[in-house]
TrEMBL record:
Keywords per UniProt: Cell membrane, Membrane, Transmembrane, Transmembrane helix
Chief location of this protein within or outside the cell: membrane
Leader sequence residues: none
The protein's name in its UniProt record: LysE family translocator
Gene Ontology cellular component terms for the protein in this record: plasma membrane
A molecular function GO annotation: amino acid transmembrane transporter activity
Source organism phylogeny: Bacteria, Pseudomonadati, Pseudomonadota, Betaproteobacteria, Burkholderiales
Cell membrane in keyword set: yes
Subcellular location: Cell membrane
UniProt membrane topology term: Multi-pass membrane protein
Pfam families according to UniProt: LysE
GO terms for biological process, alphabetical: cysteine export across plasma membrane
Organism: Rugamonas brunnea
Claim: Transmembrane is one of the keywords in the record: yes
Amino acid sequence: MDELITFAPLATFAFVSSITPGPNNIMLTSSGIWFGFRRSIPHMLGITVGFGVLLGICAAGIGALVMAVPSAQTALRVAGSAYLLYLAWQMRNMRFDRKAEQAQQPLSFMGAAAFQFLNPKAWVMAITGGSAFLPQILPTWLAVAVYCLVFCVINLPCISVWAGAGALLRRFLGQPAWRITFCAVMMVLTAYSAIAIWL
C-alpha cells in the first residue's frame, strides 16, 4: 500500500504530461500520417529513451543548474522553436502518396532522442517532476532509476496513441480538401508550440 501511495502521483503526472498535446505528440501525429505507425516506432522509442535520460539528469540535480543559466535557457528556446517552425513550414505542401513517402524519411531514434534536449518544456517538466515526484527510497541512484523507469513505461503507450491517430487519419488525407484542412491545422499547432516555448 505504501508503494502504491508513493507511485500513484508519479504515474498520474507521467500520464497527464505524456498524453496531452505538445511538440512531441504533434510531430508523432505527422509521422503517423506520413509514414504509418510501424515506421514511426523508432521516433517513439527515441522520445521515450531521450526523455528518460533527461529525467535522470534533472533528477540528479544537473538540470536545475543548466536552467539556472539564462544563456542556456535562451539557446534551448531558440533551437527548439527554430526546429518547430521548420517543421511547420515543411507541412505547407504535404502530399500523401507513395512518391512523396519515398522522398522523405521518418525522424530517427537518435534524432528524436536528441530533440528532447532542445525542448525547453521537456526540461521544465523533467525538473518539476524530479523535484516533486522522485520516490523517497534509498539509495538515491535507485530512486532516480525507478522514477525514470515508471515514467518511461507510462510515456511510451501514451505517445503511441498520437502516432496511431496519425496512421488512422492517413487514409482520409488523399482527398485534397481534407489534406489542405489538416495541413493548415497542423501548421498552426506546430507554430503555436514554437511560440509557446517563449511564454
